[in-house]
Fold Dipeptide/oligopeptide/nickel ABC transporter ATP-binding protein.
Amino acid sequence: MTEPVLEIKNLNVDYGLGDQSVHAIRDVSLTLHRGEVLGLAGESGSGKSTLAYGMTRLLPPPGVITGGQVIYTPESGDPYDVLQLTDRQLRGFRWSETAIVFQGAMNSLNPVHKISTQLTDVLRAHEPKMSESSRNARAREMLKLVGIAADRMDAYPHQLSGGMRQRVMIGMALILQPQVVIMDEPTTALDVVMQRQILGQLIELRERLGFSVIFITHDLSLLVEFSNRIAIMYGGRIVEEAPASALYRDSLHPYSQGLLGSFPALRGPRRELTGIPGSPPDLKGMPSGCSFHPRCPKAFDPCATEIPVLTAHGDRSAACWLVER
């Protein structure tokens, strides 16, 4: 997992234009390595979904990318900047190179079309020379991979359970064998048992097919269990990035520590849940200095006036004056 497949460099995303614009993503840099599961965690409003839609150029208006690069490295060929692709090139890039399982994916299926139609439509659009029988065979193969019997091909979405609809969406995302799969809180509406089943199956598919995953969620306990590395977002910035085991064992940033203190320990004795006081910052009126300092129990002098820079510390990085001191 040393070869990069997707590199986000100093990405900036605004909502709106001029003096009234809101800076939703601020100088975010991340690297996804081939075959890796990169977790992206943070409270609602921290910029996780905006980052996903920005890197794939799916931002709805009035979202605007104001700076940065998104460098994609295919298995064969030279790296290129996704933000510089033409509309035609972008249509070829989506689904075949990078696919997204959207937040609320259970409701993303068209209710008036059969599952078979929705799966084969992806193949019809991207591989028009493929025969109808080959498309149907590929669709049945993908359903089998995600644990759904082939006889459900002719079912409508309302005839499937929530977990099955979620599996169909994952199968649709993988049907063209993309190198990068972005999952934006794909299990939020599912019960805990179904969450574990789907994520366990996703990891098994990753090991079999070799794709990379960006897994976005507010549930840090899921990322600790299923990710190789985790990046923590707050106020539109990355505040810490580390291997999953290192972050769980010894996080550096007080915000990461607060997130870890918000769910029960996976092992060991019971401990009191602490949580994080206050609310995430309003992006229209960000506090000066470190955006987390009004809620931080360890804040000291420079936190209120100077913005900390994401700095490497061994195999991890953090943006915190306490760590620098």
